[in-house]
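Comment thread on ticket #2218

A.B. wrote:
> Attaching the input chain for the structure job we discussed in standup.
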Amino acid sequence: MNPFIISRLPWLGRVFILLIFTALSIESHSAASKKLAFLDQSVEAPYPLTMGVIAGNFLSQPGKELLTISLDENKNRWLIIYIYDVILQKYTVTDKTAIPRSFHSFDIGQSKQVLAKKALQTIYFTSSSGLYEYQKGQFIQRAAIKSLYLEPEAVYLRRGDFVR
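C.D. wrote:
> Ran it. Output below, let me know if you need it in another format.
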């Protein structure tokens, strides 16, 4: 706004300042009325994690589950799924499975139904010989692979991007 016009019309400046204060007070009131509550949670993993915790809908339990990939002192890899126990008010281990050393990478299925919260997410693993789906403590082969590139045993497990 032109300061020359405000100086000629003193009431216009007062109205302008009043509008600014009104807008600021409405904005601060709406922010104060929306109280967000954050609940701090920690999970004790039995082994050191090799990558970050992944939240997803892997089981038919209500709410999101937490998935971790760990490495024990004998270099065994572990897939551990945690669910939130409402009674204990903390995450507890619901599934703990050793990951075969032949697996090179994993990925998580993200279908349109999952995004609409109507279906479960699926965890897939690849090795030099196949594509596997994780189901309740088992790895079920879904496709055979004959790879010239991948070694029979993997040094580490990485997160892939092969599920579409």
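A.B. wrote:
> Thanks. Noting for the ticket: Helices lie at 3-8, 10-33, 112-115.
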